[in-house]
Amino acid sequence: MVNTTIRTTKSQEIFNSAQKLMPGGVNSPVRAFKSVGGQPIVFDRVKGAYIWDVDGNQYIDYVGSWGPAICGHAHPDVIAALHEALEKGTSFGAPCVLENVLAEMVIDAVKSIEMVRFVNSGTEACMAVLRLMRAFTGREKVIKFEGCYHGHADMFLVKAGSGVATLGLPDSPGVPKSVTSSTLTAPFNDLEAVKALFEENRDEIAGVILEPVVGNAGFIPPDAGFLEGLRELTHEYGALLVFDEVMTGFRIAYGGAQEKFGITPDLTTLGKVIGGGLPVGAYGGRQDIMSMVAPAGPMYQAGTLSGNPLAMTAGIKTLELLRAPGTYEYLDNITNKLANGLLQIAQETGHAACGGQISAMFGLFFTNGPVHNYENAKKSDTAKFGRFHRGMLEHGIYLAPSQFEAGFTSLAHTEEDIEQTLQAARDVMSSL
Ligand SMILES: Cc1ncc(COP(=O)(O)O)c(C=O)c1O
């Protein structure tokens, strides 16, 4: 859609300058809007379900800083707790009681986690968990799924979905073949393919890592029996099962996908929500495995800012807010209205579409589907998604700038926000 109805002069000026200062003008690729066309808007501030750009336009936000903002942006309780924590300093680089508090909350909430280690990002958590899988099993190979993203560490940049897919890069230059040769891939929801890999690589596979609900190839839930099947296969072949819950943790249920689907992995990675908007990641799991991590055991992993008091504080407050009764029912209810509404409008306006939602995570593909894996997702009309995205932006709705990203709602989104979003979608889809 070329007719810009919102003024974005300042955004354009700032982004033009940014392009001379930072690669592509951004510090994370998908923010550059490459796959939807047009220039990104530059944010000025965020509050609740809304964002404001530097030109003063207001949008309803369905990105939520890519997941952390599940209580709404800049929640007053989180901000107040951060103010208090700030007075005591920003980083200790030493033990602090806040680490115990958040660790206990995570251990109480996430069934598989008996011990946890905090790091600074989801990438770091996944990188460390892979080292731990290898250290514990004494095996090198790992199975991941096409379209699943586990951060940008070398060994995971194979069929890695989201940013990589959005930019059309099959892999990344700079990643040595020797590193990725131990990374085996299978289509999501394909147990037979996983079994075949185990058979071909007997006693060599350390474990299987996956997004239990994929969010980095668009929203793709597991088929009935898939997660159970992986649990059985990993047991059968003496390998570990790792849920990357950086996105799903505390989002699709307080206890994550493992609570939602009743499957207990051996190890879990977390990020996003548990930092309440500050940089955080975590990995945890069975005590016998976690005891291998230094200094309790020989597997080295460390971090200057890990467990810093600000991130711990924002995480603790966010989880406290999420523990309130009715939270996940509310999230499920509004997100269900949104996802169903979008599908219905797509059908009424004559667009091939499919999609769905679990709790506060949703997706819409411009293809008839069904979408069970990344190959199916790639059949989406991405050019149409680009026009849809631009149109929604011009109607004051901020969606993730890629067909291959899930959307997020928050406790701050109201029924009226959803109504307004659906009205905008009707207008935009009618003119696509
Ligand atoms: C499932 C999953 N794992 C890992 C990561 C990497 O996390 P981070 O961006 O904090 O490094 C992401 C980021 O989107 C993710 O969605």
Strand-and-helix sequence, N→C? HEEEHHEHEHHEHEHEHEEHHHEEHHEEH
Poorly predicted spans:
none
State the end-to-end distance.
8 Å
For the report, how would you describe the main beta sheet? Answer: 7 strands, mixed
Arithmetic mean pLDDT: 95
Question: Which bin fits the share of residues in helices?
Answer: 25-40%
Strand count: 14
- Evaluate the radius of gyration: 21 Å
Q: Which overall shape is indicated by the principal axes computed on the Cα atoms?
A: globular
Structural class: alpha/beta
Order the strands across the largest sheet as they lie in space: 4-10-9-8-7-5-6
Q: Give the names of the bound compounds.
A: pyridoxal-5'-phosphate
Number of helices: 15
As a percent range, the share of strand residues is: 5-15%
Task: Describe the structure using short key phrases.
432 residues; seven-stranded mixed sheet; alpha/beta; binds pyridoxal-5'-phosphate; 15 helices; single chain
